[in-house]
## 1
Amino acid sequence: VQLVQSGAELKKPGASVRVSCKASGYTFTDCYIHWIRQTPTQGLQWMGWIDPNNGDTHFAQQFEGRVAMTRDTSINTASMELTRLTSVDTAVYYCARDRLRGGDFDYWGQGSLVTVSS
Amino acid sequence: DIRMTQTPSSLSASVGDSVTITCRASQSVSNFLNWYQQKPGKAPKLLIYTANSLHSGVPPRFSGSGSGTDFTLTIDSLQPEDFATYYCQQSYIDPRTFGLGTTVEIK
């Protein structure tokens, strides 16, 4: 199992960022993909999940209206887009797999650093 | 949201020591409690799921226990590669929440 994420991004305040997560080594539609971000001050923050089987999503309330999660089953890739960026969104963003056995994240992407700075 | 409180926030130990990390949830999470290990610059790795189940490939010196609101992660006979930060996470209800971490340092 591997989750390979897109590279680091530098964005200006007010812009949007899209991070992708390519899955391999398992059946992509069998497991949810979650997005989690990490900062030194806030720690690990769960952002939401997408069901690659049907595209259903569920987001943490603090990101509602600002986040979108999509998937492309033809290339086994999930993506997360965050809009209206501010400096507070500077973080490492991770995708992680959920096998729906207990809600744990058994495999993680390597992380994508998003820096928001003018 | 369910608040996850880990204690201690850091500890110093020697190779061969046994260490215990505690995680308390602000309300019951049944056994939907998971533990991760993270090393600097790397993604977290799953160690224990549903409170006491060892993830594939994780050495048996790691063990978890607890249910409801109180949980522990024990590392028997610390190895050099075990010096890292450990996080608990509840998967009982969304939003999934994590503790702030416990850093295990070399004494």
## 2
Amino acid sequence: GAVVSQHPSRVICKSGTSVKIECRSLDFQATTMFWYRQFPKQSLMLMATSNEGSKATYEQGVEKDKFLINHASLTLSTLTVTSAHPEDSSFYICSARADYFLQETQYFGPGTRLLVL
Amino acid sequence: DAKTTQPNSMESNEEEPVHLPCNHSTISGTDYIHWYRQLPSQGPEYVIHGLTSNVNNRMASLAIAEDRKSSTLILHRATLRDAAVYYCIIDYGQNFVFGPGTRLSVLP
């Protein structure tokens, strides 16, 4: 099956700093990538959808200036949490989809655990 | 709004079949049904997906009701490694909406 990687797998940072998380599709080209956030004992919540070469579409309530998404190539998307605060501590998961019109499913990365002190 | 309904939790004995139900009464004709599972501290893992016909793969089978308002994920022989949260997701377009899923416990 298709493989999606994330880096780093976990990160601890101080409040006020920025953190960048990378999401890569290793063996396919992802026309669309998705970023989710999951708090303990809760389900995944979609944060934003990004298509290669265009601006990301953010879900309601997600601050686009705080969560910067760059989908610069068909195999790489990055999420930057700017000026992170303890309430941003969460499990961030990306997924990638090859081509919706071929009814491709989404393939998920292993997740990045962010802890903001 | 996940638009799917699943039991919060289920239990199974090891090496017995497990039938995980999902109701999706608002599904339309071109919406695919996807199943994923998630182990603790991991990203969701693709299990199976289908449109109208029943589907089989090496992990599981997907039985879709004739009216498509419900589906059942079938694990033919549960193992301890199958203990996870199982999500049934309807693909309405580009985005997936995750509900709370079903937490499956497998007893040795």
